[in-house]
Amino acid sequence: MEEAAVQPAHVHAPPEGFISKYIFSLDHKMIGKQYYGLALVSVFMGMVLSWLMRFHLVWPDVKVPALGALAPTGAPGGLITPEYYLSLLTMHGTLMVFFVLTNAPFAGFGNYFLPIQIGAEDMAFPRFNMMSFWTTFVGFLVLVLAFFIPDGPPTSGWTAYAPLSAVGKDAGPGLGWGQNLWAISIAIFCVGQLLGSLNFISTTLDLRAKGMTLMRMPICTWAWFITSCIGLLAFAVLLPACLLLLLDRMAGTSFFIPSGLVVSDRLQNHAGGSPLLWQHLFWFFGHPEVYIAILPAVGIVSHVLVTSMRKPLLSAKVLIYSMMSIGFLSWMVWGHHMFVSGMNPFSSLLFSFPTLTITIPATIITLIWLGSLYGANIQITSASLFALGFVSMFVSGGVSGFFLAQPSIDIYLHATYFVVGHFHMVMGVAAIFGILSGTYFWFPKMSGRMMNETLGKLHFWITFVGTYCIFMPFHYLGLVGNVRRYASFVDDFMAPLMPVHKFISIAAFITGAAQLIFLYNLIHSRFRGKVAPENPWNATSLEWSIPSPPPWNNFGGRHPVVFHDPYQYGVKGSKGDFVMQDSPEQITNG
Amino acid sequence: MASTPYQHVASRSIVEGSGHSHATQSGIWVGIFAITMSFAAFTSALMVRQGTGDWRHIELPPIIYLNTVALLLSSITLERARSRATHGSRSQLRDALPWLAATLALGLVFIAGQYFVWRQLASAGLYLATTSNSSFFYVFTAMHALHLLGGIAALTYLIARIAPRQAPPRWSLFEGAAIYWHFMSVLWLYLLVVIAMRL
Amino acid sequence: MRAKLGYIVGLAALAACAVIVHAGPSGGTVSGKVTYEGTPAKQKPIDMSKEPSCAKQHATPITTETVVTGPGNALDNVVVYVSAGAPDEGAPSQAAKFEQKGCQYIPHVLAFQVNQTLEIANADQTSHNIHPLPKVNREWNKSQPPGSAPIVDKYDKPEFIPVKCNIHPWMHGNFAVLKNSHYAITEGEGGFSLANLPPGKYTITAWHESYGDQSQDVTISGNEPKTVNFVFKAKPY
Amino acid sequence: MGKFFAVILVVITLASAYPIVTHKFVQPEDISTHGHAIDEQLADTMAEGGFAFVGAQLLLAFFVWKFSSRKDGSKVTHLPGGAKLMVATAFILVGTEVLALGVLGQKAWADVYFTSPKPDALQVQAQAGQFAFYFRYPGADGKFAPLHPDKIDEGNQNYFGLDPANDVEARDDIVTAEMTIPVNREIHLLMHAKDVGHSFYVRELRIQQDFVPGLDLSLHFTATKTGKYEIVCTQLCGLGHYNMKAYLNVLPQDEFEKWLKDRAAEQ
Hints:
Chain A has 590 residues and is mainly alpha-helical. Chain A has helices spanning 2-6, 17-23, 28-58, 65-70, 82-117, 126-145, 177-206, 219-250, 275-309, 316-329, 345-373, 382-404, 407-413, 417-447, 453-480, 498-528, and strands spanning 262-263, 266-267, 568-573, 576-579, 588-589.
């Protein structure tokens, strides 16, 4: 019966040959690694772009001949033009939000570990899974292509507000084919994510091993599941939005473009469109996207923390319910990005309350972490350090969100560096910390080798202090009224703040450089690292019950049966202070 | 935190047979959910856009109602096919074949019909960018047609698999395709109402 | 003050090319004066306060230049050129120079030949953005940070091209891309003179950015001087 | 190593709090009648948020200090009260705080958006376009002439698309690049976007409002202090965004009238 059930369940044969093993692989583990690799490439690209921006802001008249050679129109003679600054800004945001924060914690780790953690041999639809990655990859290529076209990369920011993004090249460089490529790339990306989310949901619902009830799933599995539900809705809305944008740009429709616009002395031939429509559609995706980035990190970090604490969380259930309610609330708050956008002021109030309410589940999550640390026996590893760093970042970024959720304060702080500081901390850096924590934690399982702890810790200290040095001052600048997305501050109210900007830039260069330590550690350990045992962290979830790296069908044909809740730590078990999920032994509290 | 061994080890994925047929089912439903979501987005766009003036109603070519009939018929024929092949054994599937073919044909008729509708509007001088109404009309109908092509592909695949000297397709695939196809009919009815009332 | 200087520099450059190009058999000369009748639109002072680095270069604010007049109803910035009758000529080797100084285009109207090198320089402390708006030629739109090298370009079809700076909306100028070297731009007294025209029948056209163009035919048999005058109708608004 | 983390975190926390506590970075002086409400709201939020920030970070640091790599390793204990305590804290502390602030905050918002300008408010129209603001005063007839996008001619300073040839009303409209207003007089700002989205941000006025193409919004405010302030665009509008600004001159009533007369002469 069980055999009959699971034989067809193994939907693909062991991969033979390079192509089917490494390129068009159906194996969720390889696909997970591919997503992670794509994110790794994107994150370093995005980081270099941010370096160029920070450099241009503080040393606007210093020539960078190399850059001049790379981008002759964008940086003639190595001087970055204002439009190229906006291109860097747009590409940085798009790469980071879509191809890093969505790919790595969700699609990357999720693909690799969700099936294993629920005791499945693969995703429900391996072919969709493969398509999902390669679609995303094409999206990536289309986006990057924008660097190499005469028109230059798009310049309308990652939010691509219409009509700037819709009227075409008259509005400025990068808004011709650059913007087309952006919209096409994001549309393709949406398709990839939809396929992925569909896969995650079906897999979680239907391929759980015997005994793996929903409440016995590890917290990160839950996070991925909730995230895929959010993603399914979010990307299903962004896709139509991008299509309509493309129609406005290429087919002359007027969904987002009103009549009577004069751009570059040219009267635009459109009528009756609504710029706010784009903002509504975009933010209806955009805010949930924030949680698509952060929830998987929350899950990963909880998973790592609980393992390093050697004791269960105060309550995994409460944590999971809090994540759910965040996911649920995320659908009622998109308008808080539009307080000063000309939306009806009454709706601003309607949007501000659910936004403020999100603070409650977020606080619960934080308090659960803190409360669980009490009386714990924290093992300090690179993984747990990044997890603890995440908690700190999550608090810092969350608190500033509390300011922006209030329309009255947002009148002053909207579109200042305060906002930039806020979302970089809570959505950017925090999520990155989650990814890094997950990397140090799962690398042994994924590669069969340990990462170098000394380098890992060095990497942590520089990154942790560095990110605070970069993003805390952003808040101060915002309080003074330093406007974001400015290519330069000459002849300007903001010019006196230049010392702070210099400090930030230097911190950014150092912190960025420190990431090379990580890259080196990653590559070096992959080949030279010391061989990893099956369960190096004495962890309890299913991924640690199989060899490192796992065989192509995860459990080698075995069908794990689950007997316990995921985190049986601080107990008297046969192996030590923990009992694994699939071990039938009785649990006696220590 | 303590839990006794063998406490609720039952989990539907194993007990109720193959998790994968379930997965196909829930996959289809999840997909349907996503599609619904994006058409909801299109509709809300229409609502917002309607508020901003220049709203000129368009004359719907009557063919569109014939197309509707064809699509609804296809759902019926598909049901006939399903009742023929209740458990998906080879012979039952063979009996279902003509009905499947009929469904496929009706689907193609619908697509062709929609094409004529577009031709008629174009000849009436209504193109994609002419008015906001025409824009929405083309977007709605084209997006639906696009999704229906997916269903047509699925039917073609099934028919090919049922053809002789082939391993019969998994029953769950058959059911999945059926659910999707019916959803396409429902979606079309919804769109037709929106189009007739709003555009 | 600086503006005037700029004019002279610009014109000197033009005169220079004229001389070199016409090192050939001398011919007839067509000269005359461009005037207006009626009241031309009032030229308003330009407020550059948003760009302090430019504003402080102008003791008194400069005015718009859409209709620049001289004594005796003279109309300046009119491009007078041979629109028909003269053979097309290859581009001269010198570059036509267009400068952005004090957030103003110098000269306001720049005439040069098809495929002649065009050099656009930024003499200001701020980034400018040059956006010529051609209809038949290839369009481009580039920014020029302070201290960066001149933008070099050429146009391969004859056209009158409005030029604007997106960053400083008041900055507007004109390129006159012409088929041959027989052209002049009126200045001060509104006078012009097209020299060295070999015998033949010519159409002389005068183009003004606000008042459009006028043409007159003239036949030259030897190297006698001919006079052609143009009168444009000025509109108060 | 855990203790080191605790120390670093404490340092970071105090260092982060220092500039705030010592008011190193504060918003410029408020010159509006409604701004104080926003400032108070910001101050309250800063106090409560700051408390939450410092509290949580220090607690984290303390726990990591105390409970990392312990000698008596295997013996883990649990927080008395457990999850219930945490949930209760979250709801009671944060919940009430959030709602309180939420409700209070609405007052400041209402001051700006839910009141209509007095009939005697001075009407000024602001037009945002790539990449400059221009302002229009109705002139002697007190009427704004209609706008004709096709008539826009920037080279001729016709930024709004007025048609003086045909509209008599247009002939006395005063168009300026600086916004000059009388002190202590309510201003009714009519906002019009020429091309793409822009925003009207005056820090000292505690005013920020987007220009939405095709949707003419309006604002009203009263400046209580003479001086020259920066009006900047805060909505990404293209390559010149960073350079899109104008100056706000707040003058005594009489000087304002003189200024307006001089501008009228220039038109």
